[in-house]
């Protein structure tokens, strides 16, 4: 009997110690909507914080969905980081539910210099694709860092140090993009894509957005025959020889458009709204932007 009581006491003590250790080592939880922002946040917080990125590699940010267990974690997070500006159409109800539950939130779209869509089909709506201009991403980092430093349980000094390093990398990216695009003759700086996503890049680096196969500001829309006919005319007038398709969208329409334009047009894939997994061509934001820069510069150069 005495041995049984002793064993029970030891088991209870072990359980209490285990519970205390688990509680002491539990990391803060930051939930991030898109994988592009998830990469940015991960670079700032390191391993001291658990980062749950809801959007899978290669997914469409306008329409991806999450599980019930993920939705519950959104509502219990220490901080929710989202893009905003209408990008996360399929996720907004969960972001709203977290806000109603009192979860702290950071919306990147609230701290950038917002541009309207270049497409008249979008009805003057705000363009959410700010990350195509690295200067806008720098603005997001500058605003996000103090918010991250205020999360309970984080090492503010470590975040500040990582932020300084990451900001330096973003500034180097910005300088390299400026140099690469400056080498493209101004007359050839015309972008045609399958979705309006390059408004910020165009504004920053002096490109013209000739058009997009998908009208408006969302991949949930579909082009009409007249949309395609108008775009063919615009391509002919601009003398475009390379058009760009997003990695997250099928390029069948782009290839059909290239054939319809009756000119020697190349369809080049870009990574725009989503990162890839570790084996793909755009596993992180910096790589994605450098790959896109090289492909745009190569495609539009004489």
From TrEMBL:
Give the Gene3D superfamilies listed for this entry.
Nitrogenase molybdenum iron protein domain
Segment forming the signal sequence:
1-23
Q: Where is this protein primarily located? A: other
Q: Which PROSITE patterns match?
A: PROKAR_LIPOPROTEIN (PS51257)
Q: Which family does it belong to?
A: Belongs to the bacterial solute-binding protein 9 family.
PANTHER family of this UniProt entry? HIGH-AFFINITY ZINC UPTAKE SYSTEM PROTEIN ZNUA-RELATED, METAL-BINDING PROTEIN HI_0362-RELATED
Q: What is this protein called?
A: Zinc ABC transporter substrate-binding protein AztC
Q: Which gene encodes it?
A: aztC
Coiled-coil intervals in this record? none
Q: Which organism is it from?
A: Microbacterium mcarthurae
Which UniProt keywords are listed?
Answer: Metal-binding, Signal, Transport
């Amino acid at each position: 009997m005495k041995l049984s009581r002793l064993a029970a006491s030891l088991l209870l003590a072990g359980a209490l110690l285990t519970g205390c250790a688990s509680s002491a080592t539990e990391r803060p939880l930051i939930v991030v909507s898109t994988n592009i922002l998830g990469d940015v946040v991960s670079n700032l917080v390191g391993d001291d914080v658990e980062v749950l990125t809801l959007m899978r590699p290669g997914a469409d940010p306008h329409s991806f969905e999450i599980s019930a267990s993920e939705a519950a974690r959104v509502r219990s997070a220490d901080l929710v980081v989202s893009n905003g500006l209408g990008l996360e159409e399929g996720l907004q109800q969960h972001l709203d539910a977290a806000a109603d539950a009192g979860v702290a939130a950071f919306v990147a779209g609230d701290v950038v210099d917002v541009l309207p869509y270049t497409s008249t089909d979008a009805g003057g709506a705000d363009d959410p694709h700010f990350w195509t201009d690295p200067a806008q991403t720098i603005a997001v980092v500058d605003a996000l860092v103090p918010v991250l430093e205020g999360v309970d349980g984080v090492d503010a000094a470590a975040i500040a140090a990582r932020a300084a390093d990451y900001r330096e990398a973003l500034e180097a990216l910005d300088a390299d993009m400026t140099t690469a695009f400056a080498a493209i003759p101004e007359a050839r700086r015309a972008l045609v894509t399958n979705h309006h996503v390059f408004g910020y890049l165009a504004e920053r680096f002096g490109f013209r957005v000739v058009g997009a196969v998908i009208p408006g500001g969302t991949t949930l829309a579909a082009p009409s025959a007249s949309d395609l006919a108008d775009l063919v005319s615009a391509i002919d007038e601009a003398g475009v020889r390379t058009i760009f398709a997003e990695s997250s969208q099928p390029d069948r329409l782009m290839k059909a458009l290239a054939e319809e334009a009756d000119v020697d047009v190349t369809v080049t894939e870009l990574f725009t709204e989503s990162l890839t997994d570790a084996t793909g061509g755009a596993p992180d934001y910096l790589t994605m932007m450098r790959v896109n820069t090289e492909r745009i510069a190569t495609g539009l150069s004489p």
